[in-house]
Amino acid sequence: MFEPIANAWPDELQQLDPARFRIWSLHELATGIRVGANPSQLEAALLYRKRCVPAETVDCLQLLCWLHFNQCDRRAFAAAMASLRQLSPDRLEVRILTLVAWLWGDDLQAIAAAPSNLWRGEDQSVLLQLCRVAYLHKRGDLVAAQRHLETISVPLPLEGCLLQARLWAKQGKEQAALSLLRPLTARAPHHLRLFRQLLNHMIDGKDSDHVLSCAREALNRFGENPELLYHVTTLNLYQRHPGLARRSALLQQVSASVRPTPINLGNQVASYEVNGLANWLDQLLPFVFDTALVQEPQLQANLTMQYASIQSSRYRPHVEALVKALEALPGYSQVARSPLDLLGPPVSSAQKLDRPLRIAWVTGDCAYHPVARFLFGCLAASAQQRRHHHVVVSLVDNGKESMAPAFQSLGDVQVVDVASLSLNDRLQAIRDRRFDVALDLSGWTGGNYLAGFHARLAPVQINYLGYFASVGLPTMDYWLGDQTLFPEGHAEWATETLWRLPRPFLAWQPVDPLPEAATPVADPPSGPVRFGSFNHNRKLSDATLQLWARVLAAVPGSRLTLKAAADGDADTQRLLRRRMLRQGIDPERVDWLALAKGPVEHLRQYARIDIALDPIPNGGCTTTCEALWMGVPTVTLAGSHYVSRMSTAVLAGAGLPEWIAADGHSYVALAQRMAADVASLRANRAQWRQKLQASPLGDAADLMVHLEDAFSAMHAQVLSRV
Fold first, then answer.
1. For residue range 422-477, what is the model confidence (pLDDT) as tens digits?
2. pLDDT score at 426
3. What is the mean pLDDT of residues 410-421?
4. Contact 222, 188 (CB under 8 A)
5. Tens digit of pLDDT for each residue in 581-593?
6. What is the DSSP code (8-state) at residue 402?
7. C or N terminus of the chain, fewer CB within 10 Å?
8. How many whole angstroms separate alpha carbon 376 and alpha carbon 383?
9. What SS3 state is found at 447?
10. Mean pLDDT comparison of 7-16, 233-242, 277-286, 482-491, highest-scoring range
């Protein structure tokens, strides 16, 4: 009864008069479900008809199932299905709904074990055929799924288009999936599952041009539906709306307490962390850590990074458990390799050491991101001087924001894009290039490929630049830093061998087309002394706010400038104000800047700051370089871990050790002393860029010389061991 209507497009069906919903016929009720009429009215009419017309009980239950399925209400769907199976289990529509229920719950074993008559009439039922395609897709047999989908008569119904998009996305064809689904919202404007899937593809495909308008349209049509709150939280996190992200994550939790709605713990953890509330992570319940890696990989990676950012004692056991989970993944033992396996055909050590090494810079951030900017500056400064071959391996499709063209413009740097490949195909594609050294520039941050590094991509593997702790992999050979990051007596836990460069571990030497290369030093502010920080909100810990409260108290009349939130996110500022009051900061002494529209506008905002204050324990790095570049020195506190010594390394590398404090008391005294000379600071802002440029920190070509020396020495060490 429902199948002919289900195969029709909503815009092909007649719209119903909502005022007549109490007397709609079964056909009209089915049409109402398909076109997306008011679900409360539909449910009320179906329940009324079921009670008053016993002969239509099975039909009403079927339509209730479809209604609850379209609304993603698992509990109501399961209740209606239980009654339906008892009344008419062999009916075609009931068998279809049984398959839908199993597919919805990922119960592939039940489908595999079901008798063959479950599929009876498949050649005559488009819905049964689509169930077959969905089953093959969930089972991972993409070729068979695509073949079956192509046998269905065209034009495909909406559900067939959704399946096609999922198949394409699984093959890395996100743009094809988006091109298929975008125009369908006009034909099915009230189809919740269409909007939900479209948002998934837009977020995964980084479709920044359309995702916000699509999210707004979805919210206008469906309200804060539990099925959309995950996407809302994700988008708020991407837009730097931490207050709104926290709100939507909490709403999702509330919804899950009322009805069985899937929640994303990773998003919820992140929504607190980006509000500067990472300290409560140590209080998380045990079940969060017991969540299997394959179920919540984003959550586990986020937790790992967040524990490192607060120097938590839980970091080591969490990473060790995560590594064990990686090793327990199906097929891991078959793909794992040793350094000897990847060294290639046996030739003499002398021959190996004399030839240029093949270096892979593996990153999930080949966009306008600190890692890519540092790497690009280093490779650009050393063009035509390098003695090894360098390849940037991009793990994520960064779309129009990709810096791949900039790297390729250097001429002797290749870019290899493996974003669309499956994990195993990616592994083989990287190994096939026979790299001698692979540098991981992502750690446990988003888009990482630590599963591949654990299986081993190259004979020498290095943790460098993009992560602020040991990654904890026994297959990661070295952790590359310098004497300031790893001072004598450095006791931070690490599975890698520490490697100290005899110079700063990074370089800040912006070149075209990076916008900072052409941005002049910012003019100074006027009025009272202005402290400030452009570090991410996540770094504004309670300890940071307490320390800054002491600075403001020590310098009467001074002000604090913060970039707390993007436009439209008053929630973030409100939450931060409350925290400030608890830690002793008067919010009325704070100047709030909205996030800038672009990098040049962001840099120009340094005109609002005299002295930058580094947060603790998660200090700045790129932010400290940018501040110096724009004429603003930074006060930092030298911590005990890599994550709390990055600004220390930057300032030491720039020849500015006098801006480094040993403890909290010294930090406050240093800020007070420097603020007393604010007139000189304002009159000589250009000196900080000049000092940086004349220092080892500003010499990117020299950094590459030392990096290549290190790569050669590391490779020789591995050769000597094997």
1. 888 999 999 999 999 999 999 999 889 999 999 999 999 999 999 999 999 999 99
2. 94
3. 93
4. no
5. 999 999 999 999 9
6. B
7. C
8. 10
9. coil
10. 482-491
Closest CA to 221 of 37, 31, 15: 37
Secondary element (H or E) of residue 562: strand 559-565
Report the distance separating Cα 533 and Cα 520, nearest Å: 20
Q: What's the rounded Cα separation, in Å, for the pair 131 and 124?
A: 13
Is a pLDDT exceeding 50 seen at residue 349?
no
CA atoms of 601 and 315, how far apart (whole Å)? 37
Query: How many alpha carbons lie under 13 Å from residue 644 in its C-beta half-sphere?
Result: 20
Dist. CA 542–CA 35, nearest whole Å = 51
359 strand-pairing partners: 390, 437
Helix axes 57-70, 26-35, angle to 10 degrees: 10
pLDDT at 298 over 90: no
Contact 33, 77 (CB under 8 A): no
pLDDT at residue 264 tops 60: yes
Angle at 266 between CA 400 and CA 594, to 5 degrees: 55
* pLDDT at 351 exceeding the cut of 80: no
Residue range 162-170: mean pLDDT, rounded? 94
The mean pLDDT of 547-560, rounded to a whole number, is: 98
Q: What is the pLDDT of residues 647-656, one digit of tens each?
A: 999 999 999 9
Distance CA(284)–CA(75), nearest Å, equals 28
Contact 522, 689 (CB under 8 A): no
Greatest mean pLDDT among 399-403, 487-491, 572-576 lies in 487-491
Rounded distance, CA 129 to CA 148, Å? 8
Whether the predicted pLDDT of 14 surpasses 90:
no
- Give strand pairing partners of 390: 359, 413
- The alpha carbon dihedral of 88, 91, 94, 99 has a sign of positive
Q: What is the token pair recorded at 552?
A: 């403001």
253 contacts 245 by C-beta, under 8 angstroms: no
Q: What is the pTM of this model?
A: 0.82
The secondary structure element, H or E, covering residue 195 is: helix 192-204
Helix (H) or strand (E) segment spanning residue 509: none
- Report the interhelical angle of 74-87 vs 57-70 (nearest 10°): 160
Asked if 489 and 508 count as a contact pair (C-beta separation under 8 A), the reply is no
**Cα separation of the two ends of the chain:** 70
* Structure token pair of residue 405: 């063209």
Radius of gyration of the chain (CA): 29
CA dist 422 → 215, 323, 354 (Å)? 28, 20, 35
For residue 61, give Cα distances in angstroms to 43, 56, 669.
10, 9, 74
**In the beta sheet, which residues pair with residue 463?**
440, 479
CA angle 375, 376, 382 (to 5 degrees): 95
Angle of helix 74-87 versus helix 92-104 axis, rounded to 10 = 150
Tokens of 16: 């119903």
* Number of neighbours of residue 502 by Cβ within 10 angstroms: 10
**Strands of the 497-501 sheet, one edge to the other:** 413-417, 389-394, 358-363, 437-440, 460-463, 478-482, 497-501
* Amino acid residing at 325: A
pLDDT of residue 566: 64
Q: Can you tell me the mean pLDDT for 565-580?
A: 81
In this structure, what token pair is assigned to residue 713? 């020495």
Asked if residue 389 lies in contact with residue 420, where contact means CB atoms within 8 angstroms, the answer is no
